[in-house]
Amino acid sequence: MRRAEVTRTTAETDITLTLDLDGTGASRIETGVGFFDHMLELLARHAMIDLDVTANGDTHVDFHHTVEDVGIALGQAVRRALGDMKGLTRYADVHMPMDETLTRVAIDVSGRPFLVWRTEFPAPKVGEFDTELVREFFQAFATHAAVTLHVETLYGANAHHIAESCFKGLARVLKTALALDPRAGDRLPSTKGRIGD
Ligand SMILES: [Mn+2]
After folding, report:
1. Ligand 1 centre and the CA of 38: distance in Å?
2. What is the CA(83)–ligand 1 centre distance, in A?
3. Residue 197 has pLDDT above 80, yes or no
4. What CATH architecture is 3-177?
5. Is it the case that residue 195 has pLDDT exceeding 90?
6. Which residues of 105-132 are buried (b: 16+ CB within 10 A; e: fewer)?
């Protein structure tokens, strides 16, 4: 069972997150941040990960702590749910279109945290949501899932579309890279014999 639950309580946020990597994309997301809920719902759907998130954060300050801490919790949960990584596909990439926007996302479930971020937003906000928080989420996720993640928006004009292409792109690379390869059996996808440092 590739499932995990993470609870994380700080002075800034209180988060409970459960996921099932081998789900159907069902989700129940309540972060108190509408746009972020929208992004997490489509992440779960397109990754086919079952995901429940409840976050009570200091959104009276702004959405920064809530978004970053959910990224941390999601990364931790993915890493735990992966277990020993035997049989893992490991690599994936996608070009994700969203109307006029095209974003490329590539992942290596490497055990080595790294984010390359080449996405800029034409507007500082989508509704109430600061667009700079998209990068914060991806950085937190990549660090705590211990994955190498490259995100580059090749072109795009609409900030909502750009954000959505990043999250959908992440979803699709997770769906592929986190899948078990039946031909791999119980072997690690590494000639080194271990994943990580
Ligand atoms: Mn949308």
Report:
1. 7
2. 33
3. no
4. 2-Layer Sandwich (3.30)
5. no
6. bbbbbbbebebebebebeeeebeebbbe
Residue from 65, 74, 103, 98 nearest 16 by CA: 74
Mean of all residue pLDDT scores within the chain: 97
pTM greater than 0.85 (yes/no):
yes
Rounded to an integer, what distance in angstroms lies between the CA atom of residue 184 and that of residue 38?
35
Rounded to the nearest angstrom, the distance between the alpha carbon of 160 and the centre of ligand 1 is 6
Question: Ligand 1 mean position to 162 CA, how many Å?
Answer: 10
Q: Which residue has the tokens 């705590």?
A: 144
Please tell me whether residue 120 adopts helix, strand or coil conformation.
Answer: coil
- Ligand 1 centroid from CA 67, angstroms: 17
- 10 CA from centroid of ligand 1 (Å): 30
